[in-house]
Amino acid sequence: MKQRAQIRMLADGRRLHLHDGPIDLIVEAFGPVREIEVAYRAASSRFATVLDELCGELSFLRKPCSAEAEWPQGAVARRMVAAVMPYASEYFITPMAAVAGAVAEEILATMVSSANVSRAYVNDGGDIALHLTAGERFVVGMIERPDRPSLLGTTTVHSTDPVRGIATSGWRGRSFSLGIADAVTVLAERASVADAAATMIANAVYLPGHRAIVRIPACALTPDSDLGKRAVTQAVGELTTEEVNQALVSGARTAERLLRVGLIRSAALNLQGETRLVGVLGESRMIAAPVRERGLVHA
Amino acid sequence: MADDAIRCDACPVLCYIKPGRTGSCDRYGNHEGKLVRLDPHIVLDRAVERGDSVVPFLERGRDWDGTLVSHGETFVTAIGAGTTYPDYKPAPFIISSQVEGVDVVTVVTEGIFSYCGVKVKIDTDRHLGPECSTVRSQGEAVGHVTTSEYGSQMLSLGGVRHLTGGSRQEGTATCDALLNLCNGKAVEFEIDGGAKVAVQAGKAPIVDGAQEERMRVGCGSATIGMFAKQWFGKVDDVVVVDDHITGVLSEHQAGKLLGVPETGIKLKGRRSTPGRYFQVAEPGTTWGGTNIEDPLTILGKFNAKKAWSGLRLLMVSTTGEHYGYFELDEGLKPQEKELPVELRESVARIKENCEPALCTVLFMGGAGGSLRAGVTENPVKLTHSVRDALTRVTCGGAPVYVWPGGGITFMADVARMPQNAFGYVPTPALVAPIEFTLKLADYDALGGYMDHVRPLTTIVAQKEGRQRVAARADNPWPLESGAKTKKK
User: Fold this and answer.
1) For residue A84, is it within any domain?
2) Where are the alpha helices (DSSP H) in B102-182?
3) Residue B164 to chain A, least CA–CA distance (Å)
4) B-contacting residues of A 127-186, CB under 8 Å?
5) Is CB count within 10 Å lower at the N or C end of chain A?
6) Is residue A259 part of a domain?
């Protein structure tokens, strides 16, 4: 049987790389080698069918979510719907807003239920599902702009924290955004929930009618986008400090609401070098040094 | 559906992709109506043979066989690192157990080398030009002929004086020649008072239009030593013609030990020790790197008291390329005869023992200047760290020899680097890759930019602007052992 999905160990021999169509996962588990192998095998065999399951219900998953609609069949699809449902009555959102987080979550759940690993993560292009047993922790690096990765700071997730999901959304990322945030990073209890929340908060970082913002209907860029004719951000010109503040305040308001109802644990909103934090990011360390653009240097 | 969009069938998502855009995977795109896979930074993958050359990242990933044994390892070279860092797909949160777990840091940079040049070793006995002669490219002086070495002649090209010390044209021609040589291309040089030679790393030299085939087996004297036993009894005397040291079997220690009788042969030139002669002729491009067409011209008259009519004499060059068989006539004059079958084998064996003649090009550069500041805030500490062997230097992943003494002056074989590893700036100067590999703790200790350390994942797991190339099996893996742990 020819398998479409690529399943392989990364060069370091520790991490598993799962790739299929638009899904690209980096998986790592910690614990006894035998357990890790069991976990990776479980992850691999679960992964093999994930994209097909999703594509089988793709037209449904691309439609706006409503409380009355039937639930999809697939486990990943159901995680997606569950994650976006809290927003359905009030906003436009499709289950696709949580697809990356939901896939990460599903693979992680499969690993954890079949093997005894002390900690593990599944990183789906920045949307990350975490597993931590008592006493374990993950140090997470933060980056200001997805297209210009340099470590902005770190935050540590301890097993005693409720956080098991991390997600980032922004117009510079792979998915479309209605807002202008460079990156909104959310820590939540689950990856799918973090994913949906990051999307919603990033959408809310916005300056209505601002001339420096170029937006184009999603369908003009990608004919089959779930966002249809909604205008998605394609470029953001330089904004004044005040405008940056205004947009961040707008986003932070949404984030605070989500924080109050328990949908998220914390969020970091980035726009043109400014960062706004909502909620307690836990044990964090920000790096103050500016990013040097390294070009050629003289010998 | 817009008619200019195309449907991608690479996976079941079946994206409709508009021209100039990519599908949801960011890997396939619509380029002028065609579905294309986007090209991916040079990482050396040691698992893949060099013959596999450059493969797009992720294209050839092996399926996981279920074990946790490492399949391959990846080393990021400096090639292409200098310009801008390529885009990443959003992975704004990186699980930095990777960052934390980094044991070895590789500081990757491309340096502009004004202090650089190449040393070229040309395997040939043919005379390329007198020592210290100017070597020219495009009519400009780009270097000089330096010492002759074993079976080869050396050129020293480039260096700061040709690059920046002469005219603009001289600098440009030098830079050009160095760049081409380093990138494995052929360059033709003209040597004042000598030959025209075409040089290409890893290829045979072409001297005055003639391609050199073989590197000689040894000097004339050494050849006598190696083959004396095989000649014994089949021929009365052998002369191995060599511009440096011509050997004569009957006088040579090797012949004496076998009991080869004296033959009354007389060689021109200066006798060094028994059976070894210097300067039998002028340097040239024929027999054994001399200028002779007729080997008999290097012989004097045979001593009538020792020689005899019918004496069998073989004359052969150090590569077996030229040979002649002679027998003395009544007047003790050598007459050329066909090479007897029993001697053919020995001539063939000389040839067989000659390695293919090659040009080899070593890049030599000095990283003494500001390049070090890109690595650490206190540049001299990097120099010390290299000295103490805590930091390993590689050039495009290739091993280097770091010259003792001050600074970081190193040499590396350009044939062991990925293709087109070098660039240039119009200053003129060469842009060469250089990597410093050391333990994270040592990097911290020497004042490294710890906040800029990135895990390999963020480099390798991304797509655009990266190329994965196979590591050469004959190169030591840059991350292995060399970088010691500092003893406290």
Assistant:
1) yes
2) 160, 168-182
3) 15
4) 128, 138-151, 154, 166, 168, 170, 172-174, 183, 185
5) N
6) yes
